[in-house]
Amino acid sequence: MSRNVSLRRRLEYAGIGLTAVLALAMICLLVVDALRAVPIVGELYDQARIAGWWADYYLGTNVFYHPFMWRSIATGILIGVVAPLVGTYLVHREMALIGETLAHTAFAGVAVGLLVSARTGWNGSLMLVALIVGILGALGVQWLAERTDTYGDVPIAIMLTGSFAVGTLVISYGRGMTGIAVEDYIFGSISVVTPSGARLMAVISVVVVGVIVATYKQFLFITFDEQAARVARLNVTWYNTLLVVMTAVVVVGAMQILGVILVAAMLVVPVAAATQIAHSFRETLYLSILFGQAAVIGGFVISISQGLPTGGSIVVVAIACYLLAVFASGRSTTAISTH
What we know:
Layout: H1 2-34, H2 39-59, H3 67-92, H4 97-120, H5 126-147, H6 154-173, H7 183-187, H8 195-214, H9 216-224, H10 226-231, H11 236-262, H12 265-277, H13 281-306, H14 310-329
Helix pairs in contact: 1-3, 1-8, 1-13, 3-8, 3-11, 3-12, 3-13, 4-5, 4-6, 4-11, 5-6, 5-11, 8-11, 11-14, 12-13, 12-14, 13-14
């Protein structure tokens, strides 16, 4: 038994190591893409395109030569890391609905950005507007939860419906204006991933992973015993706010690929799969990231080979991973230790 456990852990560590290398490679690729005007970096950029051409030639595809596909794939890989990472805390704290709420809030931000762009000719990043609005929405949810006597999910439901209502009103008001088109943001599309959006996702990924690593013990304490954390004089309100803000920025980045409707799935489904077979919280973190990567890579393969929407393909693969984990575990729930 101990030999099997040791082998399992080595495989998990190997998978996490490969995922870290892949994510770092995607960030480097985005850096090269952003700095390609620099002579030395430009040479690397040209070599990368040549390598992509050869990959397309041998695989019979028309994917890896095009920079916009680099950005889309890199964004997806990074989503597969940070969404399950943050989602693990949300699921264990029974806050899974907050991802959907902040996605709708970010949708309102995109709608506002599109309207401003159409009325004024502003050419700024819509993702930046969505990020600002998403963070404000996250702070609003936390403020309502701390200062009202309603049940915990009521502020979340209010923000979900209210933000989507604002978004639909803004879109209806701007209907017919040039540039008002939000379908890709609702359903997700690789064409939505702009250079600035991909770079924003890279920054988000680095920041979120850094914060989780630095505050792992604090978040673990709050997740499993919030009352004891308060007694221990831990600033629970601050960490709760930090968690919802991180959720907001991850949702904004993931919305580019998955869309408003499906973005919450990557916060929940890989974590749900991991909880079926994990025996500790740390193992749940590792496995949720691995399931997230499997969903993203498998979804891209299906999407590209069959010409299907990327967001839907990723979520379907994630659900398939969840069902496999359920069958593999042979149980509906798993006792999770905090180690």
